[in-house]
Amino acid sequence: MQTLHQYLLILHIISGVLALCVFWGPMLAKKGSPWHVRSGRWYSQLMYLICGAGILMCALVLTAPLVVKAADLSPGQDPVKFAAAVRQMSGFLLLLCLLALMNLRQGLLALQAGPARLSLRLWTHQGLVALTFLCALWTLWHAVPRQFVLGQIFGGIALFSSVGCFRYIHRASVERSDLLKEHIGNMLASAIAVFTAFFAFGGRKVLDLGPELQLLSWVLPSVLGIAATLWYNRRYAKGRAGLKTAAVR
Prior knowledge:
Elements: H1 2-22, H2 24-28, H3 34-63, H4 65-68, H5 79-113, H6 123-146, H7 149-169, H8 176-206, H9 214-248
Helix pairs in contact: 1-3, 1-8, 3-5, 5-6, 5-7, 5-8, 6-7, 8-9
């Protein structure tokens, strides 16, 4: 199990680094252009690898924490308490992987499905949204009494995001602008997971952030991602308003 976990971790890290670079292709390219579509496809494939490896790693740790994380167990440390702490963190990381995967699928299918949203309503996708919702509830259920701040923050984000996905899927009707907003918002949300991992794990060490800034390293990517989503949506809304005014004239 340890060896498999290590290989998955290497795949997870390499895919994450590549995704950090490739993300700027669809982000900066003209929307709908060949380069936007091509780089977006690369980014999506990397995200599938990141999420898949992450989910498998979390499953291994949750199944056998004392085997997979044996090297982290200090001499004299209580194995029961150690296993409980490791499982709590792995459950939290599993939620992040599910959240990123759900946002990625929602963003991709929003454009592919069109106003009918038939592929979004398949049990495979709605099952993923439901699983993310239940995992968010489970995380909040354990995080609140244990004062696990990260679990409270991201449990709330995952809960809100999964409910938003369900509302879009089952809305009576959607406009073309709604498709693009759903695509942009969820693709940016999936990227937040990559940047969160960079700041919270690698970036915190590279930038030499102290313990007092650990929470900031987790929360900052989400704050910036939400701000970027609002900016994109406002920019697109202004662009459509300008086109309508020009058409009237």
